[in-house]
């Protein structure tokens, strides 16, 4: 196969050229030993967009070797923070220049609306790169007093080395930036494995990495199947750190492989079953807007999706009626249509998974308040669905669905709300709505989640840390805390005055 292809997009009256090779040492190359390809599917039409090279284990070795050489020669501790900052800002400029086409490609391969990809995902990506560009020359150590007459100690925050980065399919561009930006800011090199479902924008971004002027080997992109590329990165003896966003099941496998190989550093951002509490003092109209956003944004394909909403008994019926109308108003359609506020699910597998949960909710006796019926025709579409009359043991209440499916329950007291919210093995996000400031403080403190939203939901900022508790993983992305994930602290003890007597 060639190492680039052109996708015709009749709806946009244009074509988009996409690299299809592996990006290693700033070049798009064929696999060393494999003819395997990955087909990229348009989830709105179920048609194949194109095929890209699928990396083998030997290809992963080549990418890691390229990253190691760059770390030792043209990057790592060999480049100033000022230069790293300049290149990150240049990359942000190029993404901003190409934002519309990147958004269109994201929509074609992932399904999400172009306007959301462009204005939210890519807008945040540009800000993320610029935020970490600002950090690149501000990675500081400490000077520590030991004995002012004879000794001092100081620390250096050094780049950890070669980083394997494994990103998911729900936010292909934004998750790329969350991992790439802090790693490059401190001087690490990268082997990036995008999801096999959505490899196209990562390859397109690789073109911009080269155009920005990053040295060969600093960023390498290796689309591959998870059991091949992901497993090879997690167990590779020359990878110093692996960062993964995805399912808890896969996170366990990555952590096990890291432990059994070279005990590489690991950060995991995993699944969630996030609770969203609505207290009787809340602004119900606003609370319904945020609850609808919490489960419908990105068609529910979000690790922090507010998939369990618990409403105080006294306002349950009123709130549920408002919420139903809000969710009915959302248009789910082709992402290339500006009228669409949500798109199809990413794949047939995900579509079947979500419908399996909807069927399970019906069989277990939950009340279908909205949705729950399949569309006819092409596309992996699932309309927003609400279940009421839920019970704690139901699968739709316990397990992550990753679709626009909401379980709504009731509580009487604040303590009961907290108990229901925390009754999960996950701990990624949580939300609450109340106009009682004291209640907001009490409940936000009691909720077991890495991020808690008060009177809003699912809003993130590049300067605020993000990550999970319990089986939602560990480590932090965004904010200054993300820099810690890619640095190693070296302590240097300097003796300038003490004389050692010998023998002891």
Number of structural domains: 2
Helix content: 25-40%
Indicate the structural class.
alpha/beta
Portion in beta strands:
15-25%
**CATH T-level fold name of the largest domain:** Aldehyde Dehydrogenase, Chain A, domain 1
N- and C-termini, Cα separation: 71 Å
CATH architecture of the largest domain: 3-Layer(aba) Sandwich
Biggest pleated-sheet summary:
7 strands, mixed
CATH class of the largest domain: Alpha Beta
Strand order of the largest sheet: 16-17-18-15-14-19-20
Q: How many separate helices?
A: 15
At the fourth level of CATH, the homologous superfamily of the largest domain is: Aldehyde Dehydrogenase, Chain A, domain 1
Keywords: Oxidoreductase
Family: Belongs to the aldehyde dehydrogenase family.
GO molecular function: aldehyde dehydrogenase [NAD(P)+] activity
Protein name: Aldehyde dehydrogenase domain-containing protein
